[in-house]
Amino acid sequence: MTTTSTAPKIHPERQKRVQSALSIFSVSAWITGVFLILLVIRMVMEYVLNMAMPTWSTWVAILHGWAYMIYLLATLNLGLKARWKPAVWFTTAISGVVPFLSFIVEANRRREVKEKFRLV
Where exactly are the transmembrane stretches of this chain (predicted)? Predict the structure, then answer.
């Protein structure tokens, strides 16, 4: 008696689309997380330690804002392709504004998506 796998087949084209979306999501999560850490350091230096900040340091906040917008689009893209539930979308999206959380959530989502879609 042989047992067959009850897991549904995943079309290779869908796997490619999900893999591409996952790659974009991972890169954007890391960039957003790094800029958020830099922003927190900058804010602590300016507001807690009362250090004078050079004018170029305002770019850290601007770049984090742009990176976060890209991160939100990448989250939307991956969420649509992976068919996430709204709670997963929300927790993934909000992780870009909590220091270090984007790294943790990115690793969890990457693991979940790779398992679900059998990606290498």
Answer: 21-44, 56-80, 87-105
Q: CB under 8 Å to 99, separation ≥6 — which residues?
A: 33, 36, 37, 40
Query: Which alpha helices (DSSP H) does the chain contain, by range?
Result: 12-43, 58-82, 86-94, 101-117
Annotate 22-53 with DSSP letters as a single string.
Answer: HHHHHHHHHHHHHHHHHHHHHHIIIIIS-PPP
Confirm if 36 and 64 have CB atoms less than 8 A apart. yes
Look at the pTM and tell me if it is higher than 0.85: yes
Here the tokens at position 95 are: 């992780």
- Closest alpha carbon to 84 in 9, 5, 18: 18
For residue range 9-49, what is the model confidence (pLDDT) as tens digits? Answer: 888 898 999 999 999 999 999 999 999 999 999 999 999 99
**Count of beta carbons in the 10 Å neighbourhood of residue 67:** 21
Q: How far apart are CA 14 and CA 82, in angstroms?
A: 9
Residues composing the chain: 120
